[in-house]
Amino acid sequence: MARAATTLDPFNAIAEPKRRLVLGALAAGGGELTVNALTNTLGWPQPQVSKHLAVLRQVNLVSVTRRGRERMYRVNGEPLRSIHYWTKAFEQFWEHQLGRIKDRAEAMANHVQSPSKHPKETTQ
Amino acid sequence: MARAATTLDPFNAIAEPKRRLVLGALAAGGGELTVNALTNTLGWPQPQVSKHLAVLRQVNLVSVTRRGRERMYRVNGEPLRSIHYWTKAFEQFWEHQLGRIKDRAEAMANHVQSPSKHPKETTQ
DNA sequence: TTGACATATGCCGATATGGGTATATATTGT
DNA sequence: ACAATATATACCCATATCGGCATATGTCAA
Question: 20 to 30 A from B113, CA-CA: which of A35, A42, A73, A116?
């Protein structure tokens, strides 16, 4: 088995730097842009843009609306919200890097699953 | 070229579901755990655990300390903070999008310019 | 020293990925 | 009907990835 399909979840979708740029361009463009506009803004070959958009579409990070022969792509923030929350769960690990990690982790333990208790020292 | 190396940035590192589980387990285990503890908690073959830890190590998502023949792995939140901020930039795109995506997209299309009568293909 | 334990690493195979190029599929304009 | 425009897809290739298994490396214990 290789890496899980990119199309399965938003984490994977935004793992690709160019896909993040696409989302950024869309956001900067007022939230919605045409493939053509994106292609010009990003300066990439059109098929490349379309392909990345296809991936973003599959994980629901963007939605499309046809307008004549153009397609309007819009950012859909929902999936990013879940990622935002996932990372937030680790907030304690960047706020007090050196202190009280254990105490706060206890609270987290109640949220996730039972950790294997092996009370060791807080290493040097 | 295939996807950019997983070791290059945290976005890629956490794209792998199992790696997220590793981080979760570490967090639940008080912020730091032994490879052995992780292996038991996760129930995966040890080499697999070690390899995922190696990736997380390379993007600085975890740090290690040797303790005898064991190695204590610790969550390092910093890289997750940047991801947290990146997603936050899209906050505006999930705050006002509580309704059906399709409906909203069409309403938007009507708002902006000439509406399309052929919503054959929307979000895929 | 020998052996058990803890962890990392190397190699292999199957597969998904991203980029490039060409082309198919609309849709609009003349 | 035909050309032009907008976008999506198919195909190919080079490569990185994950998982499994065997094994190397390092450390403690008797």
Answer: A42
Residue (of A34, A14, A120) closest to B15 by Cα position: A14
Report mean pLDDT in 10-residue bins for chain A, 124 residues: 63 96 95 96 97 96 96 96 96 73 50 34 31
Using the C1' atom of nucleotide D5, identify the protein residue whose alpha carbon is closest: A69
Q: Which domains does chain B have, with CATH numbers?
A: 10-77 (1.10.10.10), 80-111 (no CATH)
Contacts of A64 (CB under 8 A, 6+ apart): A53, A57, A71, A72, A73, A74, B105, B121, B122, B123, B124
Contacts of A11 in chain B (CB under 8 A): 14-15, 17, 20
* Residue B5 distance to chain A (closest CA, Å): 10
Question: Could you read off the pLDDT of B11-62 as tens digits, one per residue?
Answer: 999 999 999 999 999 999 988 999 999 999 999 999 999 999 999 999 999 9
Flag if A93 and B83 touch (Cβ within 8 Å).
no
